[in-house]
Amino acid sequence: MVTEIAKVFEQERRSVEVRVVVDAEPGVTLEGASGQLRQVLWNLLRNAVEAMPRGGRVRLAVSHRNRTNGRAEAVLSVSDTGVGIPREDLDHIFEPFFSRRVDGTGLGLAITSRIVEDHKGIIEVSSEVGKGTTFVLRFAALEVKEY
From CA 35, how far away is CA 38, in angstroms rounded? Predict the structure, then answer.
């Protein structure tokens, strides 16, 4: 799903020179509403592109990890080389209607956060102004299939 969405997204975003790189471990799956999880990924990709007005690179990574309690988790990260998020805004980016963009509604990340929570996941963000932003999503409901 991640590779498919990345390809479609890259084709639709030709107005800005953005390279989408996917690094996905095979066989990582999780239970959930695929439409909602696609919306999460689409929202994060859209925000990444908007944070790179002169273009740049977005990296999507999917992996699985064993937690200390012995349970496995699926990890999805979306990193961009954009303008970054000021430190004072980081605590507010998931709040409905919070946006620093002139044309932003402030709903994309609020919806994203809600979907991740509904899937019993967590979302973390790290950012450095002028260097970029990384969102990391962790989901406990995981099945790893060997291919």
Answer: 5
Instruction: With a cut of 50, say whether residue 144 has pLDDT above it.
Output: no
Crossing angle, helix 34-50 and helix 108-118, to 10 degrees? 150
- The distance in angstroms from the start CA to the end CA of the chain is 16
The 10s digit of each residue's pLDDT in 53-109 is 888 999 999 998 877 677 788 899 999 999 999 999 999 999 988 887 777 788 999
Q: What DSSP string describes the chain?
A: -HHHHHHHHHHHTTTS-EEEEEEE-TTEE--S-HHHHHHHHHHHHHHHHHT-TT-EEEEEEEEEEE-TTS-EEEEEEEEE-S----HHHHTTTTSTT---STT--S-HHHHHHHHHHHTTEEEEEEEETTTEEEEEEEES--EE---
CB 114 within 8 A of CB 90: no
